[in-house]
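note to self: dont lose this again. the chain is below, predicted strucutre after it. 75 aa total, dont forget to put it in the shared folder this time
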Amino acid sequence: MATLNVNLPDALYRKLKARAKRERRSVAQAVIVLLTQALEPPKHLSILKLRGLGKELWRGVDAGSHLANERAGWR
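---
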């Protein structure tokens, strides 16, 4: 496992330490969790898997095409 030494501003370290305590982790574990979340590709969510609130309106609609068409209209 690699080692990374980073100098953090005191205020940022205090926030990180407080977060680690709330999550019952060490500061090092909290940093690993935060970096992992920041660097993983976002999970793609499908509007077709919505629970209620208009789900029936999206039946038969390709979500990717719909969003592409909407975004094309924003330009």
